[in-house]
């Protein structure tokens, strides 16, 4: 089970009907999980919820009480980055939905603007990016997309010595054009289908990333993309 923080429990839960199960829902699925509360601990049903959401040691889970013991749950990774679930979030071009490639939110990571990566015009991705399906060692370039949907093309490569992907020949310009200063942080969502040029989209949460992609495709195609949330 998992312990409910004392302050939250004292203000919102203490005195509630003990046998009434909590109902947990998330953006990853239409399913609602029922979890039993025993005192200040969630017990029966919690394991099933964590397994369904692939939660691991070090992950952070935010509960938002919507009333009547119904909670919207948002899982975050250890870097406080919203965990991306590929299957329910697909972006397609509206103009030719049958032939258009599908783009899924595959991986996200935190990037910091440093004096070194500005000087070298080279920014390394975390080693965990090697597991990202949208990226591979055959990729030669990526597009960095800001919140306004404007994109910058950068060279993309793999360093054998560091065992990690990196971005250069475009990273410095991206930072300069977006008026970045040393210490600025970006959350990049990696979007791609594994065959086309990956997009690294600046956005702190999934909803904003969807809106960002619509703007991006509108800029490059002159058409509006639609989103599908199954």
Describe this entry's structure for a reader:
This protein has 230 residues and is an alpha+beta fold. Helix content is 19%, strand content 38%. It is built from 5 helices and 16 strands. It has a 9-stranded mixed β-sheet. Strand 2 (22-26) and strand 3 form a beta hairpin. The relative contact order is 0.14. The model is unreliable at 86-104 and 222-230 (pLDDT under 50).
Query: What is the average of the pLDDT values?
Result: 76
Low-confidence stretches: 86-104, 222-230
Q: Beta-strand level of the residues, as a percent range?
A: 35-45%
What value does the Rg take, in angstroms? 20 Å
Order of helices and strands: EHEEEEHEEEEHEEEEHEEHE
Distance from first to last alpha carbon: 30 Å
Protein name: TF-B3 domain-containing protein
Keywords: DNA-binding, Nucleus, Transcription, Transcription regulation
InterPro entries: B3_DNA-bd, DNA-bd_pseudobarrel_sf, REM_fam
Subcellular location: Nucleus
Task: Write out key terms for the chains shown.
nine-stranded mixed β-sheet, four-stranded mixed β-sheet, 230 residues, DNA-binding, elongated, alpha+beta
Secondary structure elements and their pairing?
Elements: E1 2-3, H1 6-13, E2 22-26, E3 29-35, E4 37-38, E5 41-42, H2 46-52, E6 60-67, E7 70-76, E8 89-93, E9 103-112, H3 115-120, E10 122-124, E11 141-145, E12 151-159, E13 164-168, H4 171-177, E14 185-192, E15 199-202, H5 206-221, E16 225-229
